Each structure stands twice: as C-alpha cells, then as structure tokens.
Task: structure prediction
Amino acid sequence: MLSLSLLVFLAAALLFFWAVGAHNRLVRLHAAVGKAFAALDQLLVRQLVWVQSCLPESMRGGPQTTPGELQDEVMASWARLSAASEQFALALAQARTQPVDGAAMDSLVLAQDALDTAWQSAMRDAVPPDTHPSAERLQAKWMQLLHQTLPLNTAFNEAVEIYNAAIAQFPAWLLAKMFGFRMAGSLNRWSKDR
Result:
C-alpha cells in the first residue's frame, strides 16, 4: 500500500504539471491574440496612410488652423477627417501595444467609427460626386480597404473568444488571476457595423 507521503507527492506533482500545462496554454492563446492583431494592424496602417494621403497637401500631418480661425464647410470637413485620422492613429498605436486590453479595443472601435463618419462627411462636403469624378473612385477604394480588414478582424475576434473562454474555465481561471491574465477585448461591434 502506498504511503500517505507518496500520495501527497504524487498529487503535488500532478497539480504542478497541470499548472505548467495550463499556464503554457494561456500564454499560447495570449500570443495568438497578439499575432492575429498584428496581421490586422498591417491593413489598418495601410488604411490610415491612404486616408491621410487623400487629405489636401496643407493638412497632411494635422490640421493647420488655429482654434478661432473661420473655415468654410469644405475645409471644416477636411479638418474633421484629419483630426479623425490622428485619433485613429493614436488608438491604433495603443491597441498595438496592448492587443488584449478591452479599453484599447473599445478606443480603436470608437476611433474607426469617427474616421468612417469623417470620411463620409468629407466625401459628401469636400468632394461632391457631381463635381468631382474621382469621388466614386475614392469611395470605392475606401470600401475596398474596409472589406479587406473583415477576414482578419474575424480571425482576431475568434482568437479573443478562444482566449477568453480558456481564462473563464475552472480551474484555469485561478491561474489566470494568479499570473495577471485578463479578459481580452474584441472588435465585435466593428464587424457588425460593416
């Protein structure tokens, strides 16, 4: 018959090896979320660079007006697009450094919404389709860039879902709490809006 000390040792060894395996799984899933975001990030940077290249030459690098300066409607539209692209760049930089942070992902979704709204406003006010034949081409390119992100956005959201499910499982959530793994934020609202 096995002695009590041997049973305790075996139980401790089993618990240790389970904990190492569970921890390694959480680390792999955490890395998968980061890798999925890195792929999406490349397309988002391309989208941002393209939008900024569409701005008038005088506005590249940020709006060049003072707060009290009067602007006509066209310049105001371009200024809103420039500001929205800067906001998106900041949110993207934050999300890039923290791809599992829910607040960073929420900020990115809000910045994308603001960029989309500003883009639509600029296309309507600053580049009217009836006077500027390239407005349709610009809008088509915008939609193409948005739709290119959808598969990578879906892959990111799926990686987040798998990671979050692993953290929520008992007893792995004990390890998650001990080692600081937190639930990741997804871009689900972003996918539904498109």
Remarks:
- The chain has a mean pLDDT of 84.
- The first helix runs from residue 4 to 54.
- Residues 93 and 108 are 9 Å apart (CA to CA).
- The two ends are 66 Å apart (CA to CA).
